[in-house]
């Protein structure tokens, strides 16, 4: 049944988050700070992880033991060598920051908190939009009690769809994004020893064996839940499982040698954008509907080009470290001035193209809404991104991205509402 959607779908599905994507930097690496020239090699260290553990656990710790007389989760030597010291904030949010993997966090010896930190829950939050957009684009998500449509008030059906949506978010967020973030941290342990030595792996807060167990458990759990969603949705072909497998492959080759896509600016940035937008969209739409029209594949891929621009913004602050470590990000390849125009162009031109498409299929209202959401993005590009993308990266993203994600949702609502039979 096609149902009426509105932005209130956020309230119906926001109880979870979604991501299949490779990692996004979360502001741990401070911009424009001098980069140490000494290479720090990871070595096995037989020290105890923390005072809370009695057994000797091999860890990977990048500094000489005599330089680390304090608890290794808060080593002052490590912090002094970091590009951005992890100075604990004093606004009362330090414990929350630790749990979601943000800079300014408190130290901890609790292994479960450390495991959660490795999954970087802060990166799950933006990607809930992907699953919600897919549900909206399906035209078949049912509310528990829809105030706008008296024909969409089947409470049991609404409860079932809510449970499906929440389960899809568990799959995409804690499980598969958790897998992605953990494996990324594992393969980035050498560069993190320079840039972020307070991270769980280079600081020795978690052992090699524990990291590998977490990677395996999250992968198996994610693929198992993906197949379970296919069974629940009655799929003859396991679409969600295949999307999950594809997402994990992209995550692996993004972070791991020999391909390590993140070393290539174009491939890495597009893989990041596609994973953060296309895969969760397709997952949400497959759970509630069908992916049986080319437009269902093309529109998310187009928005992934805008996602490439978002990925570039995250690369500005780490240009010095990327250059030293041989990571050919777009700011490294084209310089800051060149990359900022690539960023602005990919975000704006893609959305203008989508708006033109919506107008071409006789959806002028949705096209006008999308254009209205593009205008403030252009303003913030002109006032924040283009003048100084390094200094204004966080401010630009915080100001501009809400309009982008609402534009993606507006497009998905249009797809879900549109009468495709009228075009036949």
Can you put this structure into words, describing what you see?
The chain is mainly alpha-helical and 424 residues long. Helices cover 60% and strands 1% of the residues. It contains 16 helices and 2 strands. It has a two-stranded antiparallel ribbon. Helix 14 runs parallel beside helix 16. The chain is globular, with a radius of gyration of 22 Å. It starts with 8 loop residues before the first helix and ends in a 7-residue tail after the last helix. Mean pLDDT is 80; it is low at 1-19 and 23-84.
Q: How many beta-strand segments? A: 2
Overall morphology: globular
Strand content: under 5%
Largest sheet, in brief, is:
2 strands, antiparallel
- The helix tally amounts to 16
Low-confidence parts lasting 5 or more residues at pLDDT below 50?
1-19, 23-84
N-to-C series of helices and strands:
HEEHHHHHHHHHHHHHHH
Biggest sheet, spatial arrangement of strands: 1-2
What radius of gyration results from the CA coordinates? Answer: 22 Å
Q: End-to-end span in angstroms?
A: 20 Å
Rounded average pLDDT: 80
Q: What is the subunit organization of this protein? A: single chain
Residues in helices, as a percent range: 55-70%
Q: Which structural class do you get from the secondary structure elements?
A: mainly alpha
């Amino acid at each position: 049944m096609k149902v009426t959607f509105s932005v209130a779908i956020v309230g119906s599905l926001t109880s979870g988050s979604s991501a299949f994507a490779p990692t996004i930097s979360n502001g741990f690496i401070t911009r424009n700070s001098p980069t140490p020239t000494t290479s720090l090699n990871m070595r096995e260290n037989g020290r105890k992880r923390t005072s809370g553990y009695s057994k000797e656990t091999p860890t990977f710790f990048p500094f000489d033991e005599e330089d680390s007389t304090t608890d290794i989760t808060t080593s002052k030597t490590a912090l002094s060598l970091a590009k951005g010291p992890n100075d604990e904030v004093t606004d009362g949010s330090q414990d929350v920051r630790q749990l979601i993997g943000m800079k300014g966090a408190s130290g901890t010896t609790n292994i479960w908190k450390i495991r959660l930190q490795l999954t970087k829950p802060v990166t799950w939050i933006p990607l809930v939009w992907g699953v919600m957009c897919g549900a909206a684009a399906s035209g078949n998500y049912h509310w528990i009690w829809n105030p706008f449509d008296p024909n969409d008030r089947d409470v049991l059906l609404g409860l079932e769809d809510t449970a499906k949506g929440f389960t899809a978010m568990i799959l995409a967020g804690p499980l598969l994004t958790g897998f992605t973030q953990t494996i990324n941290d594992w393969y980035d342990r050498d560069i993190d020893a320079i840039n972020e030595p307070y991270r769980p792996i280079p600081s020795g807060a978690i052992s090699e064996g524990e990291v590998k167990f977490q990677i395996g458990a999250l992968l198996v759990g994610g693929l198992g839940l993906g197949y379970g969603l296919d069974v629940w949705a009655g799929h003859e072909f396991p679409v969600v499982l295949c999307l999950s497998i594809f997402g994990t492959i992209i995550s692996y080759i993004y972070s791991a040698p020999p391909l390590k896509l993140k070393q290539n600016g174009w491939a890495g940035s597009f893989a990041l954008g596609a994973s953060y937008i296309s895969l969760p969209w397709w997952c949400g739409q497959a759970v509630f509907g069908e992916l049986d029209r080319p437009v269902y594949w093309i529109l998310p891929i187009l928005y992934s080009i805008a996602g490439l621009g978002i990925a570039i913004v995250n690369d500005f602050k780490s240009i010095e470290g990327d250059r030293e470590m041989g990571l050919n990000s777009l700011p490294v390849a084209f310089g800051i001035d060149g990359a900022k125009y690539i960023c602005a162009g990919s975000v704006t031109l893609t959305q203008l193209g989508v708006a033109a498409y919506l107008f071409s299929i006789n959806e002028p209202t949705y096209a006008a809404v999308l254009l209205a959401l593009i205008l403030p993005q252009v303003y913030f590009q002109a006032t924040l991104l283009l003048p100084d993308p390094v200094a204004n990266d966080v401010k630009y993203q915080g100001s501009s991205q809400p309009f982008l994600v609402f534009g993606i949702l507006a497009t998905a609502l249009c797809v879900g509402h549109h009468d495709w039979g009228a075009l036949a």
